[in-house]
Amino acid sequence: MRIKEILKLKGENQTIKARGWIRSVRNSKAFSFVVLNDGSCQGTLQVVMNSDMEGYEEASSLLVGSCVEFTGELVASQGKGQNVELQAKGVHIYGKTDENYPLQKKATSLEFLREQAHLRPRTNLFGAVFRLRHQLAMATHQFFHERGFYYLNSPILTAVDAEGAGEMFNVTTFDLEKMAKGSFDKVDYSRDYFGKPTNLCVTGQLEGECFAMGMGSVYTFGPTFRAENSNTPRHLSEFWMIEPEVAFMDLEGNAELAADFVKYLISYAFDHAGDELEALQKYHQFSAKGTNEKYENHLLVLEKVKDSTFERITYSKAIEILQKSGKKFDFSPEWGVELQTEHERYLAEEFFKGPVTVTDYPKDCKAFYMKQNDDGKTVRAMDVLVPGVGEIIGGSQREEDLDKLIKRMDEMGMEKGPLWWYLDLRRFGSAPHSGFGLGFERALRYISGMKNIRDVIPFPRTPKNCDF
Ligand code: 4AD
Ligand code: MG
Question: Ligand 1 centre from 465 Cα, in Å?
């Protein structure tokens, strides 16, 4: 039985075994109290050892982090804070720790825990984060499955730069050391593994579009890779993205789907990770103490968003709001320039005080595939911005007109060859369609309230950092 199940029992004196890692040991003359956690839930099991228990001496001298199994009787607890406790009759020690164990009881910083990413799953905080992460992954599949979407695994190895931003990790089997020693003025990709330049995907969207144009409504949920040199609390080099793509859906429908999805995630978190949200809430409250940060009850904020309607404005309106705000930005907001994080956060945090969907961006800010508006200047793009994080969703209605799409690719100096199949979708049975990408870790940051994206992915990859 895992501790999650044990804690649901009433303590009718049944004999059970409990295994886990020791959170703390407290010794008195006749007893020892051990707090045990096994990662199955936020809760811990209190174990009481009598000094006459076999192996008491060794067990009572165990240090934090040791892995043990207790056999004993589960009884109603006399003490405060728990309904049941385990009266230990025997103990088996799986693995001890010593004083070098990095996660001692005293508070450790998140930076330090990032360096101990192999051990942080044992902490109260990261247990909460990663159980929440699990629940939101389940919520994602359930949300789309309930709506008749088909789950699609888009390829990770690809020959296209689907966002046209050139932020790709190359994939090769060339021996770079050997190449460096030779004198090459040109790389002959025909001799590489795939016979052409290849990279890790930055998105699964274009493949998603192929399937939407045959199966109607699909979604991907997979890893994506961006070699952008961004060292910020909201950028990862490897992150997970959820990308629905829907035939016959316009931007309106897209924005509605996006808002419904975010709200569903929040509701699901309340229903399935209530203990975790509460633990996170306490952590944020605790860490705001003694700082200048104003603390807002994170759970109340989410509760409100869950039942709200997301505000919707155009990019042009957003620029107007920013310019009239009287706020001093590092980058002054100007029509034609992509919104900066500080702008996104002002809009969501200060102006709308909640999620806001911004649509119709200048075409030069956005990727080649977005549907062009009649004004010749903007495209049917949408970003969902939320307080604390900024953009968590980027999406658009797609250009379904072959001529317009080709013209745009030419304008942007794009090579059409590698995308012949994408253009075929417009050549044969084209239809209006839309989709978006939700950055899973951005959404997790928002819902967990964690301040750094590196703390919501098991093993973060960022520039100059690929440990573990
Ligand atoms: O806005 P992006 O670049 O859009 C796309 O990739 C589209 N193909 C999506 C689509 O329409 N199907 O990325 C989508 C989302 C962003 O809103 C953000 O949440 C997340 O992916 N994202 C990142 N998350 C973490 N680290 C990064 N470096 C990210 N770049 C984008
Ligand atoms: Mg974007």
Answer: 20
CA proximity to 71, closest of 124, 1, 141, 134: 1
Separation between Cα atoms, residue 287 and residue 349, nearest integer Å: 20
**Is the distance from the beta carbon of residue 442 to the nearest atom of ligand 1 less than 6 Å?**
yes
Pocket test for ligand 1, best of 239, 369, 419 (most atoms within 8 A of CB): 239
Work out the number of other CB atoms within 10 angstroms of the CB of residue 463. 12
**Each residue of 119-131: pLDDT tens digit?**
999 999 999 999 9
Cα–ligand 2 centroid distance for 271 (angstroms)? 30
Per-residue three-class SS string for 281-334: HHHHHHHHCCCCCCCCCHHHHHHHHHCCCCEEEEHHHHHHHHHHCCCCCCCCCC
Ligand nearest the Cα of residue 442 is: 1
CA gap 333, 437 in Å, rounded: 25
**Is residue 462 a contact partner of residue 261, using CB atoms and an 8 Å limit?**
no
Answer yes or no: pTM beyond 0.90: yes
What percentage of the chain reaches a pLDDT higher than 70? 100
CA distance readout (Å), 139 to 221, 259, 271, 277, 417: 12, 14, 10, 15, 38
Apex CA 243: angle with CA 237 and CA 244, to 5°? 175
**Rounded CA separation 104/219 (Å):** 43
Q: Which of 154, 207, 241, 453 to mutate to test the pocket of ligand 1 (most atoms within 8 A of CB)?
A: 241
261 exposure class (CB count in 10 Å sphere: 0-12, 13-18, 19+): buried
Ion ligand 2 neighbours, Cβ < 5 Å: 394
Describe the chain by its helix, strand, coil percentages, rounded to 5: 35, 25, 40
In the reported structure, the alpha carbon of residue 308 is separated from the centroid of ligand 2 by a whole-number distance in angstroms of 23
Say if residue 456's pLDDT is above 90.
yes
Convert the pLDDT of each residue in 72-121 to its tens digit: 999 998 877 788 999 999 999 999 999 999 998 676 899 999 999 999 99
Give the chain's count of helices (H) and strands (E): 14, 16
Interval between CA 219 and ligand 1 midpoint (Å):
14
The rounded distance, in Å, linking the Cα atoms of 38 and 20 is 4
